[in-house]
Design a protein that fits this description.
heterodimer; A: about 325 residues; alpha/beta; Rossmann fold; five-stranded parallel beta sheet; 16 strands; B: about 260 residues; 15 strands; about 30% helix
């Protein structure tokens, strides 16, 4: 007996039932396992509350058993998830954030409202509304959005979500679609040598690694530069770093230099005088490393690490 | 070729303060700005404009949209279309796509639509992919840095960031390309252009949704705003101590958080 038989037994219209279910699109990891499975576990919980089924849409048939064990009632195997889902008209579609473009195209085809990149998604069991929080202004706050269309979609950032319980004894239906993979209208030509214009001022940097006199001399500066490369960050410093000749005026952080507002400010060996700390007031997150436990930088740091920056970097860099 | 650039205008982050403790937003002044990546898209379009293509800009909303369009005209856009409607200031992605589709018709078609890949003030980054799907056009999914148009024919070559480097992708017009923030340095508008544009009442063409033939249903919201949620207050000075190995481990955890 499969889901269709169950639906018929309950007097449900098989076509109509497709409009009231939760569909989860799951990519595969490089190693072959299903990715973002936390979404499936959460969908199972909502489906139990709503009294509907969970459908998983995957690319590889070999992963169907895993999807069923994690909570799917029906697994759809297709190389063309966009075309396949368009023909299904589901009520809820949840995708991980990395399938953003697929989600947006699908939402347009379905006429569905879409909330993107939300770390929290809720389905109201009573009203069947889909709500999510979309972070704006670099995470300063989030707009709580509710989808008002019959088909409701969200792309979800599942980092930090609990892994779902896998029940190997669960059974479900597997449907393999014979839709061919759609040929993309965009052709990859190949890698090219392109250097983006180096124009971005320090004020616009998303990540900054900054050094001060306590970084441990030239050797410490070299390690800090490696950290900046690893984090794709701008390299900067305070007044003492400029006086030491490690940075130029355009890269001096301070009220007398550049005032910055990065997402992450990594201060290595910077004592943190008033002039410097005022200039990083707009930083979303500050991590400071300094050997002096009384360094003023720690009063404005989210994470304060007491220690020798050079020694800590030697241990940290191989792990990045 | 007609190139249309979508400019999305939101509150300038310097004009308000978010108080996490009070869970409130305090607006100090009525200042607006164009999404930074949209300005990079405009610059990418103006580079093509320098080669003879026709660059047009469109913005939707109240008076702040007109200000953004005047700036675009001063920078070098040949035409600017302002879809004037205060009610559309908080428009979501669905109706925005409907409006842009009608603007494309209004300007006599476009071979390329450019916009920014990120929109900091609202959930509008999805507009590019939605527009491509609505029009049935090609869409370059990767972060675009530069666009070139073949001198003859309809081929577009787009430089995109992928992995650690850059790749070249090709498609044909009509297409939608989303340009990543900081892909280029938007040009400064010459002072003479600024004066000319601000003295020219026809510099920005004003149209209403009725002029564009948009029915009310086409502008119906797909997503409703239910309020704001605030991150927890920052706690400063959480000291991490221990052996160098332990500290490095904690640092790695903090970096990955």
């Amino acid at each position: 007996m499969d889901i269709a038989d169950l639906s018929a037994g309950l007097g449900e219209d098989a076509e109509g039932a497709a409009y009231s279910d939760i569909w989860v699109v799951l990519p595969s990891e490089a190693g072959g396992a299903l990715a973002a499975t936390a979404l499936l576990g959460e969908a199972r919980r909502w489906a139990d509350g709503l009294g509907c089924y969970v459908h998983a849409v995957i690319r590889l048939e070999a992963l169907a058993a895993q999807a069923i064990a994690l909570g799917a009632d029906r697994v759809h195997v297709t190389l063309d998830p966009l075309g396949y889902l368009t023909s299904q008209q589901p009520e809820f579609v949840l995708l991980p954030s990395n399938l953003f473009f697929l989600a947006a195209e699908l939402a347009q085809r379905l006429g569905a409202g879409l909330i993107t990149d939300t770390p929290t998604v809720e389905i109201d069991i009573d009203t069947r509304a889909l709500r999510g929080a979309h972070a704006v202004y670099n995470g300063d706050y989030a707009q709580v959005l509710e989808v008002t269309t019959p088909e409701k979609m969200a792309t979800v950032d599942v980092r930090g979500w609990p892994a779902p319980y896998a029940d190997a004894s669960r059974t479900g239906e597997v449907i393999v679609s014979d839709r061919p993979e759609v040929v993309d209208a965009v052709n990859w030509v190949g890698p090219i040598a392109y250097t983006p214009p180096a124009w971005r001022p320090l004020q616009k940097a998303h990540t900054i690694v900054a050094v001060g006199r306590g970084v441990g001399g030239e050797a410490g500066v070299a390690l800090a530069r490696k950290l900046a490369d690893a984090l794709n960050a701008e390299f900067a410093g305070d007044r003492s770093a400029r006086d030491s000749g490690w940075i130029d005026a355009a890269h001096e952080v301070g009220v007398t230099g550049q005032e910055v507002a990065p997402t992450l400010y990594f201060a290595l060996g910077i004592l943190g005088d008033t002039i410097h700390n005022a200039a990083i007031a707009g930083a979303k997150r500050v991590i400071a490393v300094h050997p002096n436990p009384d360094a003023p930088i720690f009063k404005v740091a989210d994470v304060a690490i007491v220690g020798d920056p050079a020694e800590i970097l030697k241990k940290l860099l191989p792990q990045l | 070729m007609n190139i249309l650039v979508l400019l999305r205008v939101g509150r300038d982050p310097a004009s308000f303060t978010v108080n996490r403790k009070a869970e409130r937003i305090f607006v100090h002044r009525d200042e607006w700005r164009t999404a930074p990546a949209d300005l990079n898209a405009l610059e990418a379009a103006l580079v093509l404009g320098d080669a003879g293509h026709m660059v047009m800009a469109v913005a939707i909303g109240g008076a702040e949209a007109a200000v953004a369009l005047r700036a675009a005209r001063a920078m070098g856009a040949a035409r600017a279309v302002w879809v004037q409607d205060d009610a559309l200031r908080d428009i979501d992605a669905g109706p925005m796509v409907a409006v842009v589709q009608r603007v494309i018709e209004h300007i006599g078609g476009a071979g390329l639509v450019l916009m920014g890949a990120e929109v900091p003030h609202a959930d509008l980054a999805q507009v590019a992919a939605r527009l491509a799907a609505a029009q049935g056009w090609a869409f370059v999914e990767e972060d675009a840095h530069a666009v070139q148009v073949e001198p003859a024919g309809t081929a577009l070559t787009v430089t995109v960031a992928a992995g650690q480097g850059f790749h070249s992708v090709q498609t044909n017009e009509p297409a939608v390309v989303a340009v990543v923030e900081d892909a280029n340095k938007p040009r400064y508008a010459p002072a003479a252009n600024i004066v000319r544009v601000y003295n020219d009442p026809g510099a920005v063409e004003r149209v209403s949704t009725t002029d564009l033939g948009l029915a009310e249903e086409a502008l119906a919201r797909l997503v409703t705003r239910r309020g704001e949620r605030y991150p927890p207050e920052r706690v400063f000075g959480q000291v991490v101590d221990g052996s160098t190995e332990e500290v490095a481990r904690q640092l790695l955890r903090a970096l990955r958080a």
